[in-house]
């Protein structure tokens, strides 16, 4: 009976689906365990072998926990709103819903083929109205909430309204806008409804405001910082500029300290925690007000070094700072405007990362020093960001490297003062002194002679007396822009009355995405929903109606923006807990039972995006009494990447030909480019001749070609001038790194990049160069898991991916290694079957077999609990080799072996379990327990040496005394033969280690 993985895989995948084998219960008496993979986006390309890596690891843990008696929730779904589907819709005219559903069907087919134990009964899709109905509901809760700093949590907006109506806002301790105007209770009660709404927008956790955003004209939308790489959009590589727009934002900054402190309570890698700490960017210092000369406005500056205030020689504003247009003099206006336009083309990340470029412009304005009253020139420079602090810097060149470089670069220009040194016994002639340690302040009036701490405390006190500053803790974390000018996203449940946002009552949700003819922005620049003709809200019938009916009395315009990609993924783990609940995102009972995710597996690239937003939403929902825990994910593992093994060829398009005999030294283009085999440099005279001849015959100058063909090859020197490495599709490369040219010539890639190209072979073979790179379509190094499953079975794929190396490390894919794992599974199969069928017996197993089994149980249990999956696969191989050598076919060994293999290779394990006569699925059978008694060594293979040279070995019980060992050795025929009638002078015996006969 042969091992037929395709037949076995199909059989058990069908069985699991039909029997809902992995469906979790919300009312089980078992302990719960929730294991989750990061929400996948279903792209049209489908899965490559790198994608399942984390899924296989999570599946091993999920299956193991079921064996250990847990009620396991291991769900799967799709983050199905997003820009790729919309871009495809723009290009093809197909509705994003159609392509998204096609992509999901492809993903589901591939996922099923690998045999994951997902509870598909809980599948969710963020683009389904029955899902985003709850995303809209959460948005409404955020809108109807404010952050009370006194209680350190979000509260219902009604409590704030009550305070306003009874006390005014003087004593309200809230996270809110900076430009809050004080008012009394009487003022509030006299305000119009519109005035009250505008004030509340300054406090709400989601609010409308004019914000500096990353605008991508090429995509027609705003991008989050994490969607920009090197100043261009991650998708498509389009330029991104900074632009002011009225946008929905979320006050994630209210949670900065809690997000920071919460990192101490979760089991995440230190690198991810550090990424979030840096992103949140807590700084302790002071807020200082600098009055402007000849202007009523003041420049607010946050500084972590208020002790250096007497070293201020100039100020720098971000080019986008709102004061720039107000204070710039007419003489400087043209230079300032040109600089602002130039800066708008650089992203914040690019500006932060670029520490080498120094640029700026003097505004012509001057601020006033709070203490000395001297004039301080005000510049703009792109190293200052509008979104960090106040967008203004009090520049102290002697104490800050960037200020120092800026001051020196513009030294001698009008508006740039001399650098002041305010540090005692410190040389700043060549560089700034940025350390706080061992600093004594000098040339600083009342701060002279003080250290950093003393000076900081004193200067804050003096600033407070002048009413020009106070101590403050600041965070780099900025409020998150929540609007996108896209079609394929969650519609906001918002309509507008007199330009002010109104929430649609939750009982009327979902507000479904309307149909549009075009997915591009409108001609007048409105988002794609501006193309919708039925997109107005009737406040009487509570329905979406035709835009022509808008009267701004009972029928009002709806919001045209949609929510960002991270909206649906910021709470999805809770939906899995109660996926079919129509009335709530999840019931209190389900939330209480599952609480939070016990194990979360996904990529580290989401550190400052999804992982931060998820923690924010979870904390908010906890504050409002909807979520049971403060943190969403207890343990996080970031899997590494499986890298592709790319195949490249050297393509030559131009050559330099030298021939002194005819006075030739020219560069020629090749009419037919030449691709060289990777071993072309290993040439003999014949191949060298053939290559030179090929080059000459390929040049595009017929006259020169004719002349050169009449000259001896040895008299012609040829050099490759223009050549480039080009990717070829790895699917046309065999295991010997040889390009299958005839098959490759039929491909689309050949027709686009290699048409009319000559492939120069060596010994009738063309070898490619292999390089390890990220697996992607653009590098043509993608390997489909379908191909592996079809040829070797899903269990081979699962075991091989785990065998490649530690989960958290990146490792290269090498299809050649698959055969070794497949061979292991066939060897395992032969322990149970021969050509005639099952050969398992009920005989008593040997001590050696029991030892091999229990050693494996111990190792695999420890490995899964420590997430060291690669070493488990090694142990399985060792065990099967040992059992094969022991000719083991005993049920007492092979039945538990199938169970411990089941998390890794579930299809073959189910088949073996069934063939052994078991009717129930192996999925929930109790995991075998390691019995240490079988691991205790009862005997020892002793090396027997004569005068230190080992001559033979002997197996002896470990409980023998030295005298008993000596007696046995002396009677052994091999000893008698070695001694040849002589008597040893000494017999050295160390029990369990050494037997040595001397003399």
From TrEMBL:
Pfam families: Anticodon_1, tRNA-synt_1, tRNA-synt_1_2, tRNA-synt_1g. The keyword ATP-binding applies. A motif ('KMSKS' region) lies at residues 774-778. Its EC number is 6.1.1.4. Coiled coil: none annotated. Keywords: Aminoacyl-tRNA synthetase, ATP-binding, Cytoplasm, Ligase, Nucleotide-binding, Protein biosynthesis. Residues 848-961 form the Methionyl/Valyl/Leucyl/Isoleucyl-tRNA synthetase anticodon-binding domain. ATP binds at residue 777. One of its GO terms (biological process) is leucyl-tRNA aminoacylation. It is found in: Cytoplasm. One of its GO terms (molecular function) is aminoacyl-tRNA deacylase activity. Residues 277-463 form the Leucyl-tRNA synthetase editing domain. It catalyses: tRNA(Leu) + L-leucine + ATP = L-leucyl-tRNA(Leu) + AMP + diphosphate. Residues 768-800 form the Aminoacyl-tRNA synthetase class Ia domain. GO terms for cellular component: cytosol. Belongs to the class-I aminoacyl-tRNA synthetase family. PANTHER family: LEUCINE--TRNA LIGASE, MITOCHONDRIAL, LEUCYL-TRNA SYNTHETASE. This is Leucine--tRNA ligase.
């Amino acid at each position: 009976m042969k091992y037929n993985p395709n037949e076995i895989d199909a059989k058990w995948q069908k069985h699991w689906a039909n029997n809902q084998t992995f469906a979790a219960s919300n009312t089980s008496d078992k302990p719960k365990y929730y294991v989750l993979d990061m929400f996948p986006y279903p792209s049209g390309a489908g899965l490559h072998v790198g994608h399942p890596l984390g899924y296989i690891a999570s599946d091993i843990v999920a299956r193991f926990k079921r064996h250990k008696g847990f009620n396991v929730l291991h769900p799967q779904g799709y983050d199905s709103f997003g820009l790729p589907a919309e871009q495809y819709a723009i290009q093809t005219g197909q509705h994003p819903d159609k392509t998204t559903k096609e992509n999901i069907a492809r993903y589901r087919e591939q996922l099923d083929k690998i045999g994951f134990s997902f509870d598909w009964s809980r599948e969710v899709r963020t683009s389904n109205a029955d899902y985003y109905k709850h995303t809209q509901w959460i948005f409404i809760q955020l809108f109807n909430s404010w952050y009370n700093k006194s209680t350190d949590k979000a509260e219902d907006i009604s409590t704030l309204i009550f305070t306003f109506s009874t006390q005014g806002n003087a004593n309200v301790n809230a996270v809110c806008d900076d430009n809050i105007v004080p008012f009394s209770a009487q003022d509030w009660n006299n305000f119009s409804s519109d005035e009250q709404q505008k004030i509340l927008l300054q406090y709400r956790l989601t609010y409308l405001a004019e914000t500096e955003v990353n605008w991508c004209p090429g995509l027609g939308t705003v991008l989050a910082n994490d969607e920009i790489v090197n100043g261009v959009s991650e998708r498509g590589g389009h330029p991104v500029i900074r632009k002011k727009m009225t946008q929905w934002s979320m006050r994630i900054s209210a949670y900065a300290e809690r997000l920071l402190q919460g990192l101490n309570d979760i089991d995440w890698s230190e690198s991810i925690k550090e990424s979030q700490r840096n992103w949140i960017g807590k700084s302790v210092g002071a807020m200082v007000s600098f009055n402007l000369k000849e202007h009523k406005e003041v420049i607010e500056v946050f500084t972590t070094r208020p002790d250096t205030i007497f070293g201020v020689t100039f100020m720098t504003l971000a080019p986008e700072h709102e004061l720039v247009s107000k204070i710039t003099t007419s003489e400087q206006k043209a230079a300032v405007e040109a600089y602002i336009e130039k800066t708008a083309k650089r992203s914040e990340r690019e500006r932060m990362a670029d520490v080498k470029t120094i640029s700026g412009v003097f505004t012509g304005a001057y601020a006033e020093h709070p203490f000395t009253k001297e004039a301080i020139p005000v510049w703009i420079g792109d190293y200052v960001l509008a979104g960090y602090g106040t967008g203004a810097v009090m520049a102290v060149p002697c104490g800050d490297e960037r200020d120092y470089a800026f001051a020196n670069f513009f030294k001698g220009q009008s508006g740039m003062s001399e650098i002041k040194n305010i540090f005692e016994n410190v040389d700043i002639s060549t560089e700034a002194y940025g350390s706080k340690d061992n600093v004594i302040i000098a040339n600083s009036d009342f701060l002279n002679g003080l250290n950093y701490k003393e000076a900081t405390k004193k200067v804050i006190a003096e600033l407070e007396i002048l009413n020009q500053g106070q101590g403050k803790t600041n965070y780099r974390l900025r409020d998150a822009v929540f609007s996108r000018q896209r079609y394929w996203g969650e519609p906001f449940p918002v309509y507008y009355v007199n330009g002010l946002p109104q929430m649609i009552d939750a009982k009327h949700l979902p507000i479904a995405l309307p149909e549009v003819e075009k997915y591009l922005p409108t001609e007048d620049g409105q988002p794609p929903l501006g193309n919708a003709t039925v997109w107005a809200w009737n406040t009487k019938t509570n329905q979406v109606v035709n835009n022509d009916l808008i009267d701004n009395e009972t029928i009002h315009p709806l919001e045209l923006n949609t929510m960002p990609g991270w909206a649906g993924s910021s709470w999805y783990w809770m939906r899995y807990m109660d996926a079919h609940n129509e009335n709530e995102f999840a019931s209190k009972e389900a939330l209480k039972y599952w609480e939070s995710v016990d194990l979360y597996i996904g990529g580290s690239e989401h550190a400052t995006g999804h992982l931060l937003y998820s923690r924010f939403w979870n904390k908010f929902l906890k504050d409002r009494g909807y979520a049971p825990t403060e943190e969403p994910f207890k343990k996080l593992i970031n899997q590494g990447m499986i890298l592709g093994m790319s195949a490249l060829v050297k393509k030559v398009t131009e050559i330099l030909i030298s021939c002194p005999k005819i006075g030739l030294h020219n560069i020629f283009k090749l009419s037919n480019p030449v691709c060289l085999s990777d071993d072309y440099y290993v040439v003999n005279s014949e191949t060298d001749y053939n290559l030179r001849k090929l080059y000459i015959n390929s040049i595009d100058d017929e006259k020169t070609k004719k002349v050169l063909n009449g000259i001896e090859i040895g008299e012609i020197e040829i050099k490759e001038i223009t050549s480039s490495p080009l990717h070829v599709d790895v699917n046309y490369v065999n295991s010997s790194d040889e390009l299958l040219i005839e098959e490759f010539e039929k491909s689309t890639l050949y027709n686009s990049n290699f048409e009319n190209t000559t492939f120069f072979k060596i010994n009738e073979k063309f070898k490619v160069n292999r390089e390890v790179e990220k697996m992607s379509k653009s590098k043509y190094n993608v390997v489909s898991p379908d191909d592996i499953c079809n040829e070797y079975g899903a269990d081979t794929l699962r075991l091989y991916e785990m065998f490649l190396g530690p989960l958290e490390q990146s490792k290269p894919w090498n299809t050649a290694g698959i055969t070794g794992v497949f061979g292991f599974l066939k060897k395992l199969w032969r322990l149970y079957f021969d050509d005639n069928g099952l050969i398992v017996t009920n005989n008593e197993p040997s001590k050696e077999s029991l030892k091999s089994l229990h050693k494996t149980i111990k190792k695999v249990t420890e490995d899964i609990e420590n997430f060291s999956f690669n070493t488990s696969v090694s142990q399985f191989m060792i065990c099967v080799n040992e059992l094969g050598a022991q000719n083991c076919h005993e049920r007492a060994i092979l039945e538990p072996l199938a169970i411990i293999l089941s998390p890794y290779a579930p299809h073959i394990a189910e088949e073996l379990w069934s063939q052994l006569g078991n009717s129930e699925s192996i999925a929930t059978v109790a995991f075998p327990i390691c019995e240490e008694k079988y691991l205790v060594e009862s005997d020892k293979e002793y090396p027997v040496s004569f005068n230190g040279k080992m001559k033979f070995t002997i197996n002896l019980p470990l409980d023998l005394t030295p005298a008993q060992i000596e007696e046995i050795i002396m009677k052994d025929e091999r000893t008698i033969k070695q001694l040849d009638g002589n008597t040893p002078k000494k017999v050295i015996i160390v029990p369990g280690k050494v037997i040595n006969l001397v003399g």
